[in-house]
Specification:
295 residues; Aminopeptidase; 13 strands; globular; disordered N terminus
Length: 295
């Protein structure tokens, strides 16, 4: 959170036009002040006291937004196949709001960059685009929560890389594994990005015991081994890296990954990155910094 940013908690009394109490916390000065506002015609008018010179309404924390979205994913629902995933993907990339999606524009207080966020209420995913500059890389999280903390790592990497787009699956892995299910909006987005030659980095997680001698597995999946995937592997020099094009990596190379196959067909760069549980739990900042350096 940036210096001077404020977090507001709003507690309404019952009734239209009632007094609202807002608590504003200034991270920069460690100040908590009480603020009284009134709800008028649907708008919160805030009069502040304390060191802030002007009223501040906090931008939502993207980490909280994504955590709320991913923790709600249930393994106990049926997979709903989207009726027109290609059209939905195209509308999202054009900045439209397809049916079933809520879209918001804002400024991320951590990176300071403007963004567009679209999230589906129908299991079609969450998509976060940096709108402050041109698109240059896609960061994909196909197994949020089931591959522990990959959604947090994906967001942290998005914040470090200008021009990134973050794709997060909208289904629990037990309902539909989007890394192997082509009939999804997630995959349709990846196909459109591959056709535009946007490099794609997909983040996964593995148990330490599956490959005890490696911290990270980097592979091009079924795509070509080019500068993109090699650069990522080189950037991870402080980790034990199994390179899928050089070694057997415990069947963690992602060669059957459908987004990787789409990139191979389009001739677009793809990197399938598997992170051990120890790395995801204990070395998140380090691995995010290293991956960002390789992009």
């Amino acid at each position: 959170m940036s210096a001077g940013h404020h977090v507001c908690e709003v507690h309404p009394n019952a009734g239209k036009g009632a007094i609202w109490v807002v608590i504003v916390q200034s991270v920069r000065v460690g100040l908590r002040v009480r603020v009284i506002g009134t709800l008028l015609a649907g708008s919160l008018l805030v009069a502040c006291s304390g060191r802030s010179e002007a009223p501040v309404i906090a931008e939502p924390d993207l980490a909280d937004v994504i955590a709320e979205f991913t923790t709600a994913l249930s393994p106990d629902v049926s997979f709903r196949r989207p009726s027109a995933p290609k059209r939905t993907a195209q509308e999202l990339l054009e900045g439209s709001s397809p049916a079933g999606f809520t879209t918001v524009n804002g400024t991320d207080p951590v990176s300071g960059r403007k963004y567009a966020l679209a999230r589906s209420s129908r299991g079609d995913g969450l998509y976060l685009a940096d709108t402050s500059t041109s698109l240059r890389v896609a960061i994909e999280v196909p197994h949020p929560t089931t591959d522990l903390d990959t959604e947090r790592i994906g967001l942290a990497l998005w914040r470090k890389v200008p021009g990134a787009m973050l794709l997060v699956s909208g289904t629990h892995r037990r309902v539909a594994d989007v890394a192997h299910e082509p009939d999804t909006v997630f995959h349709a987005m990846a196909v459109r990005l591959a056709e535009q030659d946007v490099p794609q980095l997909q983040i996964h997680g593995f148990h330490d015991g599956s490959l005890p001698d490696a911290d990270v597995v980097v592979s091009p999946g079924s795509a070509a081994t080019g500068p993109f995937v090699r650069s990522l592997a080189e950037s991870l020099s402080s980790f034990e890296v199994c390179r899928g094009w050089q070694s057997e990596c415990g069947k963690l190379e992602g060669t059957r990954n459908v987004q990787g196959r789409a990139c191979a067909e389009a001739g677009s760069p793809f990197a399938h990155v598997e992170l051990s549980r120890s790395v995801r739990e204990d070395r998140q900042d380090e691995v995010v910094t290293a991956l960002a350096a390789g992009l």
